[in-house]
Amino acid sequence: MPALSAKGLRKSYGQQEVVAGIDLTIQRGECFGLLGPNGAGKTTTLRLLLGLIEPDAGGIALLGHSVPQEARQARLRVGVVPQMDNLDPDFTVQENLMVYGRYFGLSDKAIRQRIPELLKFAGLVGRADSRIQALSGGMKRRLTLARALVNDPDLIFLDEPTTGLDPQARHLIWQGLRGLIAQGKTLLLTTHFMEEAERLCDRLSIMDNGKMVACGSPRELVEQHIEPSVIELYGDPARGWGERFGAVLCERTETAGETLFCYTSDSEALMNSLRSHPDLRYLHRPANLEDVFLKLTGRDLRE
């Protein structure tokens, strides 16, 4: 039985359909990514899957329970890391874990037994009695993640878990998440960091305008949607070069500001041309998940 499945899921607010008939299946023990620009419908989808709001149509099964009818029972085996930290500033690190554990009906003894393991996971050993105001942003984020594990959940929802963190804190959280995957936990991850999705996700879906526009492993999506080589050209000279050679040497080009993106399956001729233009600044790299994301959802800024 999958950890989570949804069929024909729809949700509208007024005349706007925010979730437009999506199907989703997440197998037990996998890390599944849900990517999309702002306003794509990701947060509404998460709220539907957790039974926090009711769908207009469609069915959801969460850990064997029908949602929203049996959402309360299902959420006893679910951990949630919200997009914004919501730790209680009046409590210490340990007290935040204690209070949260009681929501799941855990005894104080059971919670205390788990606290050392959770503090180690979060890199907060020795900070059990620290007030929340004394923690750095990275520490707070790691505590929020540890708090989501207090009930030893089978499925963990992570809504942009590393937003606003520096690279060191981000890598520490990635290490912790990989440990959870190794333990057989199921993860549902939303993120705007394509590197994060590539590092962690077994499969992912790209969502836009309330619909799933692509689904597969990160490598499968790159192979299916993008030419293997990308050359980025920078500055004013790139425009002139693109007008003269782009259509001949590139299979596809895109312009974003002063950057010209050239996509090709055979980069040799293109690179030879660039070497004869020393005034050009460029970067030659393999295609990645960010290229797929921008191709399928566009480069326009979303508010």
Structure description:
With 303 residues, the chain is of the alpha/beta class. The protein folds into two domains: 4-217, Rossmann fold (3-Layer(aba) Sandwich), CATH 3.40.50; 227-286, Alpha-Beta Plaits (2-Layer Sandwich). The chain is built from eleven helices and 14 strands. A six-stranded mixed beta sheet has the order 6-7-8-3-9-10, sandwiched between helices. The protein has a four-stranded antiparallel beta sheet with strand order 2-1-4-5. A four-stranded antiparallel beta sheet has the order 12-13-11-14, with helices on one face. A hairpin with a 2-residue loop joins strand 4 and strand 5 (65-67). Helix 3 packs across helix 4.
What topology emerges from the helices and strands here?
Blueprint: E1 4-13, E2 16-26, E3 31-35, H1 42-49, E4 57-62, E5 65-67, H2 71-75, E6 78-81, H3 93-102, H4 108-122, H5 137-147, E7 155-159, H6 167-182, E8 186-190, H7 194-200, E9 203-208, E10 211-216, H8 218-225, E11 229-234, H9 236-249, E12 252-256, E13 259-264, H10 268-275, E14 281-286, H11 289-297
Parallel strand pairs: 3-8, 3-9, 6-7, 7-8
Antiparallel strand pairs: 1-2, 1-4, 4-5, 9-10, 11-13, 11-14, 12-13
